[in-house]
Specification:
This protein is an alpha+beta fold. The chain is built from nine helices and six strands; from the N terminus they run E-E-E-E-H-E-E-H-H-H-H-H-H-H-H. Strands 1, 2, 3, 4, 5 and 6 form a six-stranded antiparallel sheet that branches. Helix 4 crosses helix 6, helix 6 crosses helix 7 and helix 7 crosses helix 8.
């Protein structure tokens, strides 16, 4: 489903019911926002109208119709349809891909429901904390599905998800936000939470308040090398 013109592609769809490989040819759309609904948009790119399904989280970030928009996209190929999904942030698209590619029984429709029903940060925190109740309250996600999401994603999201969710619940100063971002980066690289926090604090004391997140992470990696 690609809006105003019919485009024919040949894809190998024999391996699965749908293919959400991140290597597909359409990675973003940039153009004039023609139509915006809570569930879909139409973007005019050089005279061609592209229709994309979106989560509510992306709808809230859209400009007014007529404005310029850059929409990150994911093309899902099925035997009976080619559907374009759009996202205003990389985090939303990454979570969509993670859900569809990793969790058994989760297709694009439920993945969009999840993105519409909970923020990426809150989702990561719920998975890391094993919060079945929070996930099962999302439309289309029952208790069994919520439990399956937690089991299949907890190792991938890990302690960084809990740290990110906890940080989002309190207002951070610019300096604290910088420390938080550096800690999350280190945790993504395999550091334990307490070790990452101690390393960043030590690096900040050594480099001073003007050190960037990149400076702090590099200093921590050099120290741990």
């Amino acid at each position: 489903m690609l809006g105003a013109m019919a485009i024919h592609w040949k894809f190998d769809v024999r391996c699965s019911m749908f293919d959400v490989s991140p290597s597909r040819m359409i990675t973003f759309l940039q153009g004039k926002l023609v139509e915006a609904l809570p569930t879909q948009v139409v973007v005019d790119v050089n005279g061609v109208g592209y229709e994309a399904l979106i989560p509510l989280s992306s709808f809230n970030k859209l400009p007014q119709p007529g404005g310029t928009v850059k929409l990150l996209t994911q093309l899902v190929v099925r035997e009976d349809a080619h559907t374009l999904y759009g996202f205003m942030t990389a985090a939303e698209r990454d979570l969509f891909r993670l859900l569809v590619n990793t969790v058994s029984g989760i297709g694009p429709k439920i993945a969009l429901n999840i993105l519409s029903g909970i923020s990426v940060t809150a989702f990561r925190g719920a998975v890391a904390g094993g919060d079945v109740k929070a996930l099962s309250q999302i439309s289309g996600v029952g208790k069994k599905t919520a439990e399956r999401i937690i089991v299949e994603l907890r190792d991938k999201i890990g302690a960084a998800g809990a740290w990110e969710a906890a940080s989002a619940q309190r207002a951070l100063s610019p300096d604290d936000q910088k420390i938080n971002d550096a800690v999350l980066a280190l945790m993504a690289l395999g550091f334990k939470q307490i070790d990452a926090h101690d390393a960043v604090r030590t690096a900040q004391a050594m480099l001073g308040a003007k050190a960037t997140v990149e400076d702090l992470v590099r200093a921590c990696l050099k120290k741990g090398a």
